[in-house]
Amino acid sequence: QTCLGACLAVPELVVSGPSAGKLHKLRSMPTGSVHLLTSVRGVRLSGVVIHLTTMLTTADWTTRKDGIRLLRPVRLAADLARFLDDDDLESVIEQMIDRGLVSVPALYACGRRLAGRGRDGSRRFARVLGSRPAWNKPKDSDLEVRLFRALAERGVVLEPQVSIDLGGGRSLYLDGADRVRRFGVEVDHVTWHGGRLAAQRDKWRDRQLMRIDWVVARVTDEDLQKRFMSTVAELVEIYRLRRAA
Fold it and tell me: What is the rounded (10 degree) CA torsion for 71, 25, 139, 150?
C-alpha cells in the first residue's frame, strides 16, 4: 500500500532496493523502510526513503497492473548492492538467473553503465560479478560442446540449454537434456570461489528435478579435462539405465 501510495502521489518515484526485491519475490531482502528511486531533485514524501540517482531511464523500470512502478530485475540487481553484503547479493543474482529474470550479458552491461567512482554499491556489484568466471562464460563452452558431441556419437543426443518448468512460475535450465526420458547433464565449474552458495543452489535444483521425475548427472570441468573418455562412458551408462527404466 505504501509503494502504491508513493507512486500515485509522485510520478517521478520508482520502487527500488529491498522494497522492489520483495515485490519481485527475491530472497534475503532486509525488512524496514520503503525505498524509492528518482532522478528528479527536490522530490519529498513522508514515510519513505527516497534515493537520488543520475542513472535512471524509462528502460530501467516497469509499471505493474496495480500501478506500482518498480525497477526491472537487471537494474534492481545493481541497486541491491548498496543494501546487501557480497554473499547475499551473490545469492540473489543466482536466484534471478535461475528464474530467468536476468541474463549474464545484461548484468555485465548494466554494471558497465553504472560503474563510477563513489557511486553506492557499484564496486560491490562489479566485485560480485567478477568473482564468478562461470557467470561470464558462453552458454556453449568448449568443454560442453566436446562433451555433447562425444555423447551424440554414442547415441546420447542431448538438447543444449533446456528450460525445465517447475510449476508455480518457476523454471531452471539444464546444460543438456533429453526431454522425453527426463534425463539431463550439468557441467559444474569448480573454479568459482563461492562453493557453499553453489552447493546449496545445486542441491535445491536437484531436489526440484527429482520431484518431477528427472535424473540429472553432474560432471565437473575437471572431470572433462582429466577424465574425458571415462566420464563420457559413465554418462552413456547412466543414460542407458534411464532409457531402460
Answer: -170
Cα separations in angstroms, 15 against 29, 72, 90, 97: 14, 10, 21, 21
Question: Which cell is 1 given?
Answer: 500500500
Give the list of residues 6+ apart from residue 243 with CB closer than 8 angstroms, or none.
181, 183
How far is Cα 176 from Cα 185, in angstroms, rounded to an integer? 5
Please tell me whether residue 70 adopts helix, strand or coil conformation: strand
Count of C-beta atoms within a 10 Å radius of residue 120: 13
The total number of residues shown for the chain amounts to 245
Calpha distance 173→164 (Å, rounded): 6
Q: What is the mean pLDDT of residues 93-107?
A: 85
Q: What is the mean pLDDT of residues 31-44?
A: 92
pTM: 0.59
What are 22's strand-pairing partners? none
Contacts of 70 (CB under 8 A, 6+ apart): 3, 14, 15, 16, 19, 20, 23, 24, 61, 62, 64, 76
- pLDDT single digits (tens) 168-179: 777 788 888 999
Q: Which three cell numbers stand for residue 33?
A: 523502510
> What are 145-168's pLDDT values in tens digits?
889 989 999 999 998 878 888 887
Q: According to DSSP H, which parts of 102-141 are helical?
A: 104-114, 122-130
